[in-house]
Model the fold of this input.
Amino acid sequence: MKRIRTLVAKDFLETRRDRLALLFTVVMPLAFTAFFGLMFGGGSDRLPLAIFSADSGAPATQLVAALTGSGVVKTEMMTKDDAEKAVDDNKVAAALEIPAGFSAALAAGRPAELTLVSIAGSTGAQTVLTEVTALAGELAAGERAAQAAVAVAAAPPGSSSTASPQALKDAALLMARPLAAQALADPVATVKVIEAGTAAGQIPNGFVLSSPGMLVNFILFSLLTAGIALIQERHNFTLLRLMTTRLRRWELIAGKAAGMFALTFAQQIILIGAGQLLFGVDYLRDPAALLLMMVALSLFASTLGLLLASVLTSEQAMVATTVIVSMSVSALSGAWFPLEITGPAFQFVGHLLPTSWILDGLRGIVVRGFDVADVLPAFGVALAWSMALFALAVWRFRLSD
Amino acid sequence: MRNVPALAMMLLAPLALAALLGFAFGGGQSFSISATKVAVANADTGAAGAAEDAGAVVAGVLKSPDLADILAVSEKPSAAAARASVDDGKAATAVIIPAEFSAAIFGTTASAPKAAVEVYENPTQEIGGAITESIVGQALLGFNGARAAAIAANGLATANGDGERAGKLAQQAAETYLREGGAAAGVSVAQRAPRLPGGESTKDVGVTGTILAGMMIFFMFFGANNVARTIIDEDRAGTLPRLFTTPTPRQTILGGKFSSVFVTVTVQAVILLVAGRFIFSIDWGRLDAVAALTLVAAAVASGLALLLISLVRTPAQAGAIGAGVYLVLALLGGNFTGTAAAGGTYAGIQKLTPNGWLLQGWDAVMRGGGIADIVPNLLVPLLFAIVLFAVAVLRFRKRYA
Amino acid sequence: MSIVEVQELRKQYDPPKGVLAVDGVSFYIDKGEIFSLLGPNGAGKSTTISMLSCLLHPSSGDAFVDGHSVVTDSQAVKEAIGVVPQDIALYPDMSARENLLFWGKMYGLAGAELHTRVDEVLELITLVDRQKDRVEKFSGGMKRRVNIGVALLHKPRVLYLDEPTVGIDPQSRRAILDGILALRDQGMTILYTTHYMAEAQELSDRIGIVDHGKMIAVGTNEELVKSVGEEAHVELSVDHYLEGMVERWAAVQGVTTATVDDDHAVLLVQDANEVLPRLFEAAAASGSRITEITVTEPNLEMVFLHLTGRALRE
Done:
């Protein structure tokens, strides 16, 4: 055990000495996290929406007003050409076209159509679409409610009025519309949104959800330096020489794995600490569960790094493989984008990987108040993977090229 | 180039990752989402004398076959069971209809109790949450609208002096409202791609095209790095200093190295573009714009690689530091995540990186744009490239003075 | 009693068709001896040392170091030996002292004993004033000294040195050779591999010549030279009439054979020092002058050539 500790201490010493490696494993992820945190920590921005309208009727104006008052979009009136170009140039998330006849259609009780000009696949446009649909729907509902009321109650009983039916109707509409609008403004049935595990009304900001993903990405990436160090030791024959001392082979492998574990764990402490203290990502909500997830991630990363360094022969191969593996694993685990937007096959493959379980666990801790029992399955998956990778690494471990 | 890891990085990796991520999103032209799992608990006890159980209506909307692609509904016997589904990860959201729902909906007095339908969400599944909220909101709008019609009719009747029939008229108005389409007929929002002033509609860009463009640029960085590294290798092997003892001027020797970096990544890009065309059927767009983007990307990759090499001492550092820098640039520039929502902070962050500009340029070109549309997307990265080159040259001069 | 006994060691990589690197090598080393394994590159020297270091498992055969088998008792063997590998196996970004401390711990030393021993070794390899400098900054010779120092930390009973002087400057080589002799004088047993004949001759008490994985001759320098019956070569050129001179010389006492080769005569003589003056007399008596003379004493190169038909150095 003492010799294993000596090995780990030596590895740490060398990492500390290698200033560029230090930059790489500690400073860069920290700076990146800080940068992202500052950008996203403040809550979401309103998405820019261009509006071009060929309709001057009241409903059209009301729709524009409703959108302008929305907390989701930030409106700007433009000409058609300017709006189309603005979408094309990615200056606005989408453009709303209110065609001539919109108000008339609504007033006549016919279906009215709006067009949203957007770039396919843009997530911002999807959010805008939802908001426009909701607000336009409310507008239409109000108009139709007024129409329905007028249809049954426009004429006073025993009509002996001298006014034409149309004039009566118009007058009734003028009265009905605000009544309907008022009723809709204070509806009897509302949607109450509760985010599980959070205090009522609290919505996690963008950074909170993306922070665990970045953590996983960087930890996987840092296998690069640890793996290269091992490969270099093989190249400079110190690995072989170690076998002429009292050190046994299993002690050497365990020492290397322990070193990688310690390195990635230290990195996690720094990144999680920064997230917690500087950007309000509440990792410490359940410290025991957090510890389990950190151990799981470091176990997986260190055994993976050990296996790669055991199998690969050059440091160039290590760079190439680590980049590709860390990217693929990150993508498949939901570190870059939520798995919920991917197809079922991709999700299936993703959930074979321990990192997707760990990410779910971390996000659960932060946002949903997971405890140890909730993250235990994730720990189990990571442990199983780590044991398999470690066995493979031991089998393939070479002392020299 | 007999170097297998280098070739794998430069050619195989971007294609494989693009394929992987394309597979993530359904492999087709658009981002497709798997159905959101919703747990529904209807506790509605109905209302005396009411025609329908309002809660059942709402549940019916959620279970409608039209929404089968979007919602996968399972009915739960109680609110607790529904929430447990979300907590256990079996459902993304739970819709809980309270017991007094019908009573509130069909209450005829203005002071009828309000009813809130609870949408209990897993906060890490934002999209599922948004979809559920939207659909429930639409369903409720039907009821709220009917109620607004009733209230408006009530008001009209009262104003007309028809107070005795007010209640009956209100009910008729509500029924009229519901009969004429409920929540469905109202406003529909169609989506389309922007149309540019020339009359041409912009094309829809496939997901794979966007991703491959991002991967191409990312791995061009590595491709440039691999070639530029040979400068260090030769320095250490002694062949570079030996070259400097020949009559050939230093600038020529280094210039030759620089050119070989540029040419290599250009060739790499061409191969990837051709592969994208034939393997993934990607239509990259107009040839002159494609060529311009490719050459500027090659310049950026070369300049970046040369600057990095001029700063490090060993090949191992070149590999590791390079990988780190490229990863950060790619994460910030959106190489892995496609086009960002315009106006969001992320779009702003993208503009801090040369690859961000290039990617936005690629997006425009794939949607049918020409050189005139991407002038800033060419000039800004070019400027980056020039600065990078300049600093690299200065450093090399200092080192080999 | 021999402290090292090697019995029919064999090593085949990737059997059954793989390379047979060591093919039935046997020898012994007595306590306090310097034993050299001499042979060209690829002869199997490094493989043999690897097996004796317990880094490689023999395909068959065994070896005993201080009574312990390398096959069954490797931990005990490792405690008895110090290995100086052919390549510099040190951590370049650590100082000489840090390297020694680390390796000392790997050898089981600790605490004050470790520090004292490191100080002693630093004195031995004369690097006390550079001990805090990083190894990557050292010259080739200095690195080799640290490389050797590491192997001495735990006071091994047998020291293996695998080609320790390859590619270094003459002063450093001289220093290393002197150091090895000093160690032997202090009672260390040393196994030394090399392809430099001069080193083997100078250092060794006994030499084993290996080629293609086999031990083809063992003995002291004198024994080996004598065993193949080599004689000194003398090559002579004269100012005129070589043919006749050669016959005269062939008749001189102590000359075994005399032949003409191009424009000089090649003589085999038993004792060059005795015969040389007679050759000069013979030449003078014939009125010729010897213009050029080269004497090559019998050496291991000749032994190797004799035994294998090939040169020791390619």
